[in-house]
């Protein structure tokens, strides 16, 4: 049902076409926004990129469901809360050359483009990502590759953006080959939403481009079990057949996955797709995202509720990227008492432990 209570006929009618909805008028035509909202949504769209690819569109049943909330712009995005920051995790200050972000000694981010298959309404880089910006040209790429070659402590290059799997296979292959040829780089990691959000893009040519002699890991961003469509799961399988391990990363989001059942469903869907839940992120305070905020105390309680209820394979690390650029840290829940001499079990009962630490 649409916000006014009428069924959304446009959604199913449009789903046959493999195209991406972008403009406020297209969203209106698809029944995702109300006509009265159009002026406000137009303001939002002028400020923040919007895209809903057809594979994701087909998963939306109502605009306020866990899929719709992630991608449909809201007038609330024009309200910046006092604690929100344009560059919440301090990437800009840590960029030695364009496209590189270097915070940890052994690894660096490379952002070859700022295009995504869809634009998450809670994106931590929402002030930067979009369809018409940020593609590193040949010259900028050369400078970035040179920086990586000169910094011999870098073991791992993390391709992010934007979404690296939105690159053409030819361009991605060029980047992957170049990175793999750096002697001290042992590991390449790609962060992407493409396999589930736009599975038709996982072509043989793109798979060839991802496949290098160095270890390649893929981290797929997904926030709800319903994102695991048959086509998406098939795309993941194709990637795994290339020997690429797949991890999952999610953001804890109000209205999307803020219940034990939703998180259990999400992490079980990942495990069933041979994907290890890696991080559950606390929401970064990007502008206009307060409607998605779940307090840390609640996040810890949700994870504590899952402990003992789901397989350890379905247990991510709950992390906060400390606003200002101080790095990612686990947020618990904790089971060890500060004294180090007692622990709680998954049911909350305390037990004294005798270890060398407690003697
Ligand atoms: C998140 C992030 C990484 C990767 O951190 P992991 O804990 O290894 O996943 C690396 N560099 C920067 C700048 C980051 O923000
Ligand atoms: S896929 Fe990542 S970078 Fe792109 S909009 Fe979503 S959170 Fe932002």
From TrEMBL:
Gene3D superfamilies, sorted: Aldolase class I
UniProt keyword annotations, A-Z: 4Fe-4S, Iron, Iron-sulfur, Isomerase, Metal-binding, Pyridoxal phosphate, S-adenosyl-L-methionine
InterPro entries (alphabetical): Aldolase_TIM, LAM_C_dom, Lys_aminomutase-rel, Lys_aminomutase/Glu_NH3_mut, rSAM, rSAM_sf
Region span, Disordered: 340-359
Start-end of Polar residues biased regions: 341-359
SUPFAM superfamilies from the UniProt entry: Radical SAM enzymes
4Fe-4S is among the record's keywords: yes
Modification sites for N6-(pyridoxal phosphate)lysine: 328
Keyword 4Fe-4S: yes
Radical SAM core domain location: 102-314
Gene Ontology MF, one: metal ion binding
Binding site for [4Fe-4S] cluster: 116, 120, 123
Cofactor: [4Fe-4S] cluster; pyridoxal 5'-phosphate
Family: Belongs to the radical SAM superfamily. KamA family.
PANTHER family: L-LYSINE 2,3-AMINOMUTASE, LYSINE 2,3-AMINOMUTASE-RELATED
Protein name: Lysine 2,3-aminomutase
Species: Acetobacter aceti
